[in-house]
Write a sequence for this structure.
């Protein structure tokens, strides 16, 4: 319970900061912070594998991707972003309030009794077994999707390279 | 004022030693590196500390041992590296501070500490400060999970390998922070190069490690080392590097490891002749030294992981050498691997960025992927002639095809560069 009480406010603050910051790089770094804090939360709750994978995928993959795309694009106008803020806040609140309300309503009806004893730990071997037996269709579907995305990205990059050839020297 | 404290500590330490003497030998050659941990635990238990305090103190002492050993090794390596490079280039190297320059690391440390700490006016002060700190943390974390000896595994995690790669992600974020927060163009270019290079070379690194995981059936680094114990024909160790798939995966791991730790010939992120010092350009004093510390600790970590995965970890190279403590074998192998890295650095020129990316995506990743089916075939054929022939063919034929293909399309050619008008 204690890690939950310490980490959850931090996660929320980092996530709010990620939305609030006008400078994209700050927002991206705060997002990375929020994602890594979630990984820490998983670790604190005893989910070793999912915590490390969360860190590897979301901080090592997603956050780096965002950061890298920030590096190779031109920064937008921060003033414009700030000027848009009231509208954004209204829109965000409109999205958040129903979700939060539904959550609170569900909690108000009472939580299910926690299971007896320690949380079940799934050994990695069992996880792998299940992924490649019962979960095989899902794994294959994801694999096909990712391959298609990869090929698509390669073709896109190729066409892009052709069309945007730098002007000839001399 | 301090004397009574000292006396108290000494007497407590002595009593702890005596107590331990009654229950058995305090330390053997094998468990020598764990001596600080056991001493702290006994000391805390002797003063009547609660259970959690004893455990916490033991953990802190174990972590302190690893950090202390590798910081010492870092200081030593900074000297040895310059000595080796000098020897290769027919120079003397540092030889003024102490005998044969042995005090050079101390002199360097004092110089770095006394330098002015400059933060550029355009820099983001907080991120600029955090980046060098964040770059050391993952390296130390990664060093914590490596099994250095049979009885010396600082943190024996079931998920050791996953943790190693997970914390590696932090390095990239730290380099980005350093490059971006400096508010200058060379660090920015260096960070871009570093991130694209590290993302590209992380894939072959993981693929090579994955082959080992497939064969060992575990991601626990201790389990992987145990899997490589024993000898074939009575004298050839069962190290992964001595199998066809392991040899190829090991070479892929070696190359990707050099690139991942940003060392020559893949040190484009800090290419001095092009972008000053890359992401470290705007750093001075001890922050600059921290970047180097991160780089060298990372080098130790990646070498340690390579040894664990492919070179049998702390296993002895020949039978009948069981009387030597296992951690001596580990550090012997580490020294050999580090020397190999220095040798590479002294020999090869820096590659171009397009060569670098092409090499990762068009060669290392296909070869890394190839090691997985080869490892599967090896699993079913077992150690023997059939396995060697089948796996060898599976590796050599695609390699030949790749070579012919790439030689035809991307052979080294004379390039003409023109100034842009």
């Amino acid at each position: 319970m204690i890690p939950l009480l310490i980490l959850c406010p931090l996660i929320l603050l980092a996530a709010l900061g990620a939305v609030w910051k006008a400078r994209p790089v700050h927002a991206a770094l705060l997002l990375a912070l929020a994602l890594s804090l979630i990984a820490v939360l998983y670790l604190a709750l005893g989910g070793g594998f999912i915590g490390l994978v969360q860190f590897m995928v979301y901080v090592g993959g997603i956050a780096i991707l965002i950061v890298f795309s920030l590096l190779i694009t031109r920064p937008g106008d921060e003033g414009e972003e700030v000027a848009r803020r009231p509208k954004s806040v209204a829109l965000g609140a409109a999205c958040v309030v129903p979700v939060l309300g539904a959550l609170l309503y569900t909690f108000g009806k009472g939580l299910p009794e926690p299971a007896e004893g320690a949380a079940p730990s799934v050994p990695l071997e069992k996880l792998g077994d299940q992924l490649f037996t019962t979960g095989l269709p899902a794994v294959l579907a994801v694999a096909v999707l990712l391959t298609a995305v990869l090929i698509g990205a390669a073709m896109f990059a190729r066409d892009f390279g052709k069309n945007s050839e730098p002007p000839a020297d001399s | 004022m301090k004397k009574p404290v000292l006396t108290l500590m000494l007497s407590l330490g002595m009593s702890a030693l005596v107590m331990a003497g009654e229950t058995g030998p305090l330390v053997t050659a094998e468990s020598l590196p764990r001596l600080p941990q056991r001493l702290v635990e006994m000391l805390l238990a002797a003063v009547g500390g609660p259970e959690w305090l004893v455990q916490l103190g033991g953990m802190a002492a174990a972590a302190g041992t690893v950090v202390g050993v590798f910081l010492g090794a870092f200081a030593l390596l900074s000297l040895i590296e310059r000595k080796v490079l000098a020897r290769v280039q027919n120079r003397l190297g540092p030889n003024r501070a102490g005998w044969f320059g042995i005090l050079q690391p101390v002199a360097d440390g004092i110089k770095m500490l006394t330098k002015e700490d400059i933060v550029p006016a355009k820099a983001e002060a907080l991120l600029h400060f955090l980046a060098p700190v964040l770059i050391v943390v993952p390296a130390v974390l990664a060093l914590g999970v490596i099994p250095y000896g049979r009885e010396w595994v600082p943190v024996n995690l079931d998920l050791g390998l996953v943790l190693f790669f997970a914390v590696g992600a932090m390095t990239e974020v730290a380099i980005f922070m350093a490059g971006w927060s400096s508010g200058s163009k060379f660090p920015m270019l260096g960070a871009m190069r570093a991130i694209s290079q590290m993302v590209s070379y992380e894939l072959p690194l993981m693929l090579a490690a994955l082959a080992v995981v497939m064969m060992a059936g575990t991601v626990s680094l201790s389990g992987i080392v145990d899997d490589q114990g024993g000898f074939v024909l009575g004298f050839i160790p069962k190290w992964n590097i001595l199998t066809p798939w392991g040899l190829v995966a090991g070479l892929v791991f070696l190359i990707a490891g050099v690139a991942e730790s940003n060392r020559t010939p893949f040190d484009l992120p800090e290419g001095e002749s092009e972008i000053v010092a890359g992401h470290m350009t705007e750093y001075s004093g001890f922050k600059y030294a921290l970047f180097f510390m991160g780089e060298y600790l990372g080098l130790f970590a990646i070498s340690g992981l390579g040894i664990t995965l492919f070179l049998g970890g702390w296993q002895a190279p020949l039978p009948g050498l069981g009387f030597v403590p296992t951690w001596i074998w580990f550090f012997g192998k580490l020294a050999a691997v580090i020397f190999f890295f220095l040798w590479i650095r002294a020999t090869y020129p820096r590659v171009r960025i397009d060569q670098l990316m092409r090499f990762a995506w068009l060669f290392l990743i296909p070869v890394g992927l190839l090691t997985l089916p080869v490892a599967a075939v090896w699993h079913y054929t077992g150690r023997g002639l059939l396995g060697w022939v089948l796996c060898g063919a599976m590796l050599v034929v695609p390699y030949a095809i790749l070579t012919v293909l790439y030689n035809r399309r991307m052979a080294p050619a004379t390039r003409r560069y023109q100034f842009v008008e």
